[in-house]
Structures are given as C-alpha cells and as structure tokens.
Amino acid sequence: MAAFQAFFYVVPALMIALAIFALTGIARRAQDLSRAWNSGFTSQGRCLRAYTTTSGGGDTSVRTTLHHVYEFTAHDARVIRFDEANGPATTVEGDIVTVYYLPERPERATAHAPARGRLAAGTGCAAVFLGGVIVFCLVFMVVAHLMFTVV
Questions:
Q1: pLDDT at residue 151 in the model
Q2: Which residue ranges run through the membrane (predicted)?
Q3: Mean pLDDT of 114-142
C-alpha cells in the first residue's frame, strides 16, 4: 500500500521539478534577449544557413521549427557564429541582419528585432501556465495526503 501512496507524491513532485526547470530556462532566455537588446552593442551579421527541424508525428501533431545560423564580428574582432530558432521565414541564406549581443557573451547573441512587449507577454503567459501546473500539483498532493490520512 505504501508504494501505491508514494505514486501520488512522486509523480506530482517530478512534474513540479520539470515545470521549474522549464520556467528557469524560459526566464533565462528572456533575460538574455532583453540584455542583448539593451546593451547597445550591435553588429552587421549574415545568415549562413536556414533549416527546419520537426518533432512529433505518429499520434501527435508535427511541429516544425525554423532555425537560422548567423555569423557576425564582435567589437573585439572575434568572429561569432550562432544558431537561433524561430526566426523570420523571410530571412534566407546570404541576408544581412542586425545582431544584438552582450560584449562579454557574444555567443548568446540574437538576430530577433527588439520586441519587449511580445517578450514580456510570452514570458508572462508561460510563467502563469507553469505556475498553475505547480499549484495544481501541490493541491493534488495535499488532497491525496488528506485522503490517505482519513483512511
């Protein structure tokens, strides 16, 4: 019986850990983008390659992600190459783009145009959704505990 009860604590705890992991990744990327846009450091970059990746299939829907590989020269004359997902479909190989970067971390550059409101809205929606998942799991664990102590 104890193994059966542990299931009602372990699974929600793993879901909470996964939600926290996802939330920190989303917040870290949002902070990187915001800091790159606010740094004032820009460079002219070139799109070296555009490609897509797919995930899913079978019983789930297929999701396609557009990636771009960019190269630019940082202010210290280092040539930096980076891969960025979810770029504009209108950017193709050879296009010149503006790259925003932090001088101390040019490998975390972005070619996304500044969109602070969109970034805040996306990050906020993800935080609310993942926060809801965490709260649901916690309530589920409390209710399960109360049910097991009554029996």
A1: 62
A2: 6-27, 126-148
A3: 97
